[in-house]
Amino acid sequence: MTDRHAGARVLDVSTLAPGGFGYRSLMWWGTLGLVLIESTMFALVIGTYFYLRTRNSYWPPQNIAPPDLRWGTLNLVVMLASGVPNELAKKAAGRIDLRRVRLWLVVCLLFGVAFNTIRALEFTTLNVTFSNDAYGSIVWLLLGLHTTHIATDVVDTGVLTALMFIGPVEEQRFVDVEENAVYWYFVVLTWLPIYGVIYWAPRIIS
Amino acid sequence: MNSERELPPVLVDEAQLERTWADEPGLAGWLTSVDHKSIGIRYIATAFVFFLGGGVLALLMRIQLARPDNAFLGPDLYNQIFSTHGSNMMFLFAVPILQGLGIYFVPLMVGARAIAFPRLVAYSYWLYLAGGIFLWVSFLVNVGPDVGWFAYAPLSETLYTASKRPDVWAQMITFTEVASLAVAVSIVTTAFKMRAPGMSLNRMPIFVWAQVVTSFMVMFAMPAVMMASTALILDRLVNTHFFDVERGGDALLWQHLFWFFGHPEVYIIFIPGTGLVSTLVTTFSRRPMFGYLAVVLSLVATAFIGFGLWVHHMFATGLPQLGESFFTAASIMIAIPTGAQFFCWIATMWSGRLSFKTPFVWMLGFFVVFLIGGLSGVMVAAVPLDIQVHDTYFVVAHLHYVLIGGAVFPLFAAFYYWFPKITGRMLSEPLGMASFGLFFAGFNVVFFPMHVLGLHGMPRRIYTYLPETGWGSLNLLATAGVVLMTFGVLVFIADALRAWRAGVIAADNPWEAGTLEWATSSPPPNSNFVHLPTVAGRDPIWDNPPDQPVVVGLRSDKRDVLVTHVLDAEPDHRTIFPEPSQWPLLTALATTALFIGSIFTPRAVPYGAVPLFVTMTGWFWPKEAGETGTQQWPIEHRTLPRPNEEPGKAA
To answer: Which of B205, B282, B315, B347 lies at a 20 to 30 A Cα distance from B517?
Structure first.
């Protein structure tokens, strides 16, 4: 011992783990921040939808049918079903089970491709274009905003999946997989209210 | 955890630690830095340059208005100048400079080695810079925004403004808000998860609280203006009809969305200012803050109430009276938490031993100026008075008293206070007093007469007026005041440039303050603290006993960072932070191309997404095996703890 710290008391953190899962990790908090921001955005767009409703006598405007239920409802089913492989990927990540992480991430991706494809069909059956009137504009904005989320989330997940196959795989990557699953839930679950607004609001409060 | 084991001869290899946390050398190092200190300085310096630019625009306006029937500026240029002035001061100066202070000081004040998500913070700076350059270059080539800093529809719609000027405004918003949101997330995470052991939430410095509260406001307010400006661009570019009354849209929708952001924006600017005031009051009263809890709760209450006021900007739009009454009540109510803070500051100073140094004197300027602005605010919160003075110079006077009082005076106080920490040199006391005297006198000469002009009926945003109105002499007086303000700022700049090179060397803690940024050298080392501190009170330097432990056991060969628990800041785990990286800059360039391109064609979005994807993947992709510091595959057992496990138990 030298004089520099003779008698110094120390708090030794060298035995602490080099990371942590769930709300221990910084990235979990970063993801939470992102979720707060995006939720606010969705809430504002939904608020705008109902605000515009109050500015119009007819909703949807006369001679415009509400969006067809078929593809949107199918997508609701597909997205909710994607929660199953998502949860399994999350569980596998918590157990550091690389084989199952890979498997369920790939299944998630297949679901992702499926609901993005169905989304394209949804746009063709809205029965209105964005440049027709304010109703069309807000419906397209709402669906477009959610589409941005499902598209980027699938791309993110694709990159992460590639990493889990190509490597270098490290324990921290399993934390990343878990957090990716949390965000996946957010993106998928926001479809519940948005689906309700786009497909059912014009039928219920027309 | 206090270990009794035998210590190695040296607690940490200082030289290695410094190398580990250093930027790369040269220009490449500057472009790839992820050090919150250099990024914070860049934010502050860049925002200050924009402040000077906005000041020049203000000077031009004052010259134009100095006498009636003046032909110095034409109406078209005048419109661009006042719109650019407002947009610049709000989006490129006030918010970024306060966030810049947060980027620099929050990690130091909580005793951390770095800011959370350092590459995201670097990215946010480049994006902010690009947005700022975009606005100013557009202005210089005669495409500056000319529809006010609020860009009200329908004026900003294509039917009334066919040029690209509103698009420039709208996309500048996107640039700055994305940057601001990124910083907000980083600051909250840093304050919640990276505090020094012992700094429980109820010991967190008030400035950090103010930054946290502001960051949450940013997260809830900025999406509104991003959504509004996106809808505006869509209306202008692809013929949607959000604000088009003929096709079922609504012009007032714009005002609702804009002010749902715009009013909280005032508090996003003001709350960090009050955080600075609390910091300075504590230091220069030589005693802990009186009513810490009341002050923190006031900040939080201000943030909540701040979201319930936006309609008071719309009293003149003919909304239902019940709504107007509600928003009047809310607007008056927000004076309560601000008043509580004022009383706590007064009590702290009353019972302290005051030290009248330059930072403190600038802060006293805040008291006077902001108080006047707050009182005229209570006046315009009342519907009858508001309708009388709406869109007059009374409101111009009010908003400048609030914003310059609430943010610029505390900012100058902060410059004088923290300059020694950032540069290692002291600013001159006499020149600081002179700068304050000129700026304070000049400010009041410029803006106080505007109250009177407003009551005499002079409207805002007019480029000239007739001699018969009788507004000439007060306008001339206001213009004369600008000269004083300008000299005040020039004295500060001259002194700062002098001190940067040749100022008196600053001690580590020249003001004998109590918070942790003063517990390290001036300027701080690359790693912020050679030995990470632990904390035994709200003002650690004052409160810590002499044998307060320091943290040992972090690696010095990697950017090893300590992560602690949210509430009580117990050590939880360590994590390796990223090295300098070119990807934030490249990603920001890709984002810039997408944003600017999308003003001209919607196809810029899908095409622009490709380079964005490439750069973001480059950002995320590991640079080398082992960079996370965790076990590499194959892994036998999990070592990282799950939420319900003891920290470090699995190691």
So the answer is: B347
